Amino acid sequence: MLQATRITLGLLACRIGQLSEQIRDVDARLVRLVECHAPRLLEVVGIGPDTAVALLTTVGDNPERLDSEASFAALCGVSPVERSSGRRQYRRLNRGGDRQANAALHRIVFTRLRVDPRTQDYYERRIKEGKTRREIIRCLKRYAAREVFHLVGQLQPVPRS
After folding, report:
1. How crowded is residue 128: how many other Cβ atoms within 10 Å of its Cβ?
2. At 4, is the pLDDT very low, low, confident or very high (cuts 50, 70, 90)?
3. What pTM was computed for the model?
4. pLDDT digits (tens, 9 = 90+) for 65-75
5. For residues 93 and 77, is the Cβ–Cβ distance under 8 A?
6. CA 104, CA 56: separation in Å to the nearest integer?
7. Fewer C-beta within 10 Å: the chain N or C terminus?
8. What is the mean pLDDT of residues 143-160?
9. How far is residue 99's CA from residue 59's CA, in Å, rounded to a whole number?
């Protein structure tokens, strides 16, 4: 029994090593692709290769929809939608749009909340103003979408050969 456990654990460790190597290889390829199309995107706090690829895929799949920051925000599902409940009026996130791009913006915001002092200061200031966490995250996603739009909005289409 002990021998079988050791063999199994050894095989699993070997497989983990192989998969880790494949992940490093794919990440390196993604970095090269992003650097070819939008090199400044990887310089932004909170944007890694996987996030950049998700956003570039959204932009590349929908070039005719990218007229403005607002259209990009709607495409990513982070444009504000007016809602009301009785006497209270508020904004919520758009539930439509590209869910992968929305998830990428979500990762950007939560990474920035952990490591970026400007974002942390913004969060604290808005909390003191009485905003909820959900409202602050909505605003931060919209800001992130605005920043990404300016970085990738002027991409030139790659000619197909």
Report:
1. 8
2. very high
3. 0.80
4. 788 888 888 88
5. yes
6. 11
7. C
8. 75
9. 13
Give the span between the Cα atoms of 40 and 112, in whole angstroms: 17
Residue 77 structure tokens: 């599902």
Count of residues in the chain? 161
Q: Which residue's structure tokens are 């931060």?
A: 140
Three-point CA angle 35, 40, 42, nearest 5°? 70
Sign of torsion over alpha carbons 159, 32, 99, 143: negative
- With 0-12 / 13-18 / 19 or more C-beta atoms within 10 angstroms meaning exposed / middle / buried, residue 132 is exposed
Instruction: Decide if 155 contacts 66 (C-beta within 8 A).
Output: no
The candidate with the shortest Cα–Cα distance to 94, out of 145, 138, 132, 144, is: 138
